[in-house]
Amino acid sequence: MNDAPPITQLAGQEAYAEAVQLALDASAAYYRDGTSALDDDAYDRLVRGITAYEEDHPDQVLPTSPTGKVAGGAVVGDVPHTVPMLSLDNVFGAGQLADWAAGLERRLGRPVTAWSVEPKLDGLAISARYRQGRLAQLVTRGDGSAGEDVSHAIGTIVGLPLRLADPVTVELRGEVMMTTAQFEQACAKRRAHDGTTFANPRSAAAGTLRAQDRPYVCELTFFGYGALPMPIEDTSELAEGLRAWPHSQIMEWVAGQGGRTTAGTPVEGVLVDTLERVQERIEQIASARAGLSFGIDGIVVKADSVEDQEQAGFGTRAPRWAIAYKLPPTEKITKLLAVEWNTGRTGIIAPRAVLEPVELDGSTVTYATLHNVADITRRGLLLGDSVTVYKAGDVIPRVQAPVVHLRTGDERPIEFPAVCPSCGDAIDASQERWRCVRGRACRAIASIGYAVGRGQLDIEGLADTRVQQMLDTGLISDFADLFFLTREQVLGLERMGELSTDNLLAALERAKSQPLSRVFCALGVRGTGRSMSRRIARHFGTMAAIRAADAEAIQQVEGIGPEKAPVVVAELVELAELIDKLVTAGVNMTEPGHATPSPTGGQGEASGPGGVSGSGGVSGSGGANGSGDVGGSGDGVSGADGVNGPGGLSGSGGDANGPGGVSGVGEAGGPGGLSASGAAGAGAGSGLPLAGMSVVVTGSMTGALQALSRDEMNELIERAGGRASSSVSARTSLLVAGDNAGSKRAKAEALGLRIVTPDEFATQITAFL
Ligand SMILES: NC(=O)c1ccc[n+]([C@@H]2O[C@H](COP(=O)([O-])OP(=O)(O)OC[C@H]3O[C@@H](n4cnc5c(N)ncnc54)[C@H](O)[C@@H]3O)[C@@H](O)[C@H]2O)c1
Ligand SMILES: [Zn+2]
Question: What residues does NAD(+) bind to (predicted)?
Answer without folding.
Answer: 40-44, 87-88, 118, 141, 175, 302, 326
